Every structure is written in C-alpha cells, then in structure tokens.
Amino acid sequence: MVLTLEGVSKSFGKDNTYVEALKPTDFHLERGEMVAIIGPSGSGKSTFLTIAGLLQQPSSGQIMINQTNTTSFNEKKRAQTRLKEIGFILQASNLVPFLKVKDQLKLLDKVNSNHLSKEELASKINTLGLEKVMNQYPSELSGGQRQRVAILKAIYTNPAMILADEPTASLDSEKAFAVIELIRDEVKSMEKAAIIVTHDTRLTQYFDKVYEMKDGYLNRIN
Ligand SMILES: Nc1ncnc2c1ncn2[C@@H]1O[C@H](COP(=O)(O)OP(=O)(O)OP(=O)(O)O)[C@@H](O)[C@H]1O
Ligand SMILES: [Mg+2]
Question: What gap in Å lies between CA 48 and CA 5, rounded to an integer?
C-alpha cells in the first residue's frame, strides 16, 4: 500500500466559523493505481489531497505512506518524506518565480538525487511539449505551459505517489490527454500511484477508480 488514511478528518475555525472540511475518512491507495476525485467547489478535495501529501496536519486520524505511520513525524521528517515520496501538482503553482524552467529542475537535483536520467527527461519534455520554454522564467509562460512545467517537476524526482489538483484545467484536449497519459504511464510502468482531482469528464476512461467528495464525505462512485 502506498497510502493509507485511517479516520482522517480536518476542521477549520471555531464557534460560528467552524467547518469540518473533511469528515473522518478511510482511504487506501495501492501501487499501480490511478484514482480520480471529483466533486463541487468547496467540498474538500484540496483539503484531502494536501493532508494525504503531508502538506497540512489532519485534526484526527493516521496517515501511512509506504507502510510507515507518519503521525509522530516532526516537520523536518514530513518535508523529507514529501521530497522523496511525493510529486505534487497543486492548484497554486509550485514554480520558483526567479528561476528558469531548466534551473527549477537543477534545484531539485540538489535535494533529491533519485531523478530522471538525461534521456528520460528529454523524452518527458518532448511529451509535454516544453522544449521551447526550458530557458524561460515562469512569468514568461502561459497558464498551460506553467501547468505542464509543474507536472514535469512532479515526476522528475521519481516519487512513489503523484498528487495532482486539476492538472489539466488550462489545457486543450490534445495536451490534456498527453498529460494524463504521461501520468498513467508513470503509474503503470513504474508501479507508482496517483490521485488526481479533476472536473474533466474527457478523462474518465483513464482511471481505475473514481471517488466523489461532497460536503467533506468521500465516496467511491466508480
Ligand atoms: N485554511 C483554511 N481555513 C479555513 N477554511 C478552509 C481552509 N482551507 C479550506 N477551508 C474550507 O474547507 C472547505 C473545503 O475547501 P477545499 O479547498 O478543500 O475545497 P475544494 O473541493 O478543493 O474546492 P475547489 O474545487 O474550489 O478547489 C471550504 O469550505 C473551505 O472554505
Ligand atoms: Mg481545490
């Protein structure tokens, strides 16, 4: 099992601002599995994804990553686990504004030596159609290009698990399919796993399981 959640919940605020964004949730993700989470805005999808990826702490429950219980991890250990095991593609772009695209990858070399080879990288750059932007800064990219650079960064370090929040939101059909096929290929050929939040009905055939988030409740629907 790559990821296990047991009784994980998240609440924000108190008294009249109190909201339980994620109700107590059990969830399992296996190697080779590609799952989708759909659901309305504000239903708790990003909350679920960022908690599963150790970016924020749950209010209750336990999270196991590669069979290791992370509950007692301090922030340093959580950060190490994120760098080593998880590739994030988040709604807020995780690009460093003052670095060219190619230097964003170099930065990752410094913190994680388990990255793609030159040949593998060239092939992913080609699949994502990013050849021409490697020497540009994030501010010089279109929304869709930025999104694809974020995807390149997420897979570059060979993570066990890919967590993606609307990775195809600003892409045309052709590029959306290319991106999702690339993630699926990583998952299937490299025995990884992915959770993808999406509203994109063009993509349903690519997923092994589909969950729906509604008012903080996560239910499998397909
Ligand atoms: N840091 C926070 N502080 C207070 N409330 C929060 C916080 N983060 C999320 N929430 C609330 O939790 C609920 C779920 O938010 P979340 O971002 O998980 O929704 P979402 O399903 O990802 O929505 P969208 O599709 O619009 O991205 C919302 O009511 C939101 O206002
Ligand atoms: Mg969200």
Answer: 10
Give me the sign of the Cα torsion angle 181, 183, 184, 185.
Answer: positive
Residue whose C-alpha is closest to residue 214's, from 54, 25, 31, 18: 25
CATH 2.60.120.10 fits 3-220, yes or no: no
Nearest ligand atom owner, CA of 45 = 1
Neighbour count for residue 97 (Cβ, 10 Å): 8
Domain residue limits, the chain: 3-220
Q: Of the residues 47, 165, 197, 218, which should be mutated to test ligand 1's pocket, given the most ligand atoms within 8 Å of the CB?
A: 47
Using an 8 Å Cβ cutoff, are 181 and 206 in contact?
A: yes
Rounded to 5°, the CA angle 56-61-63 comes to 65
Q: Tell me the per-residue pLDDT of 162-172, one tens digit each, with 9 for 90 and over.
A: 999 999 988 89
Using CB atoms within 10 Å of the CB of residue 157, give its burial: 0 to 12 exposed, 13 to 18 middle, 19+ buried.
buried
Q: Quick check: pTM over 0.70? A: yes
